[in-house]
Amino acid sequence: MSCPAKFKSMGQFHLYYNKEYEVPYMTIFIGGNHEASNVLEENYYGGFIMPKIFYLGKSGLIKFKGISIAGISGIFKSNDYFKGIFEDDLISSIKSVYHTREFEVAKLSRVLIIKLIMKLIKKYT
Questions:
Q1: Is 55 helix (H, G, I), strand (E, B) or coil?
Q2: Which of 63, 91, 98, 116 is the most exposed place for a label (fewest CB within 10 A)?
Q3: What are phi and psi of 63, to 5 degrees?
Q4: pTM for this structure?
């Protein structure tokens, strides 16, 4: 994890992950720059990380209780935005693996545009 030393404490996440604690409500999240990149990279497309905790992936869209929820993981860094995904080793790329890429924005944008068009077609036909 790439973050200042003061944030490198274990916290309580492992207690939920090991099912010692139960999450009371459905939680949907995206990645940032202080998460465990290795765990999130294993779930590129997203999914349940544990019961009631759903990761949207690098970019994702789900429908939950009738509401569409979309998100793009990462933080913006202009020097990596247009590069595509080039990291093949998390140890040497720990500073760039969580940077948002143009590909993820474009991918999610297309899905959202298609959803809007389908909604308009349904409304006017």
A1: strand
A2: 91
A3: -115, 125
A4: 0.74
Q: Looking at the chain, how many residues does it have?
A: 125
Distances in whole angstroms, Cα of residue 72 to Cα of each of 10, 11, 100, 120: 25, 25, 7, 25
In whole angstroms, how far apart are CA 17 and each of 14, 23, 60, 108?
5, 10, 22, 28
pLDDT along the chain (125 residues), means of 10: 71 81 91 72 86 89 91 82 67 63 85 85 85
Residues 27-57, buried b or exposed e (16+ Cβ, 10 A)?
A: eeebbebebebeebbeeeebeebeeebbbbb
Question: 3, 30 in Cβ contact below 8 A?
Answer: no
Q: Is 25 helix (H, G, I), strand (E, B) or coil?
A: coil
Q: How far apart are CA 16 and CA 25, in angstroms?
A: 12
Q: Which residue has the tokens 């500073």?
A: 95
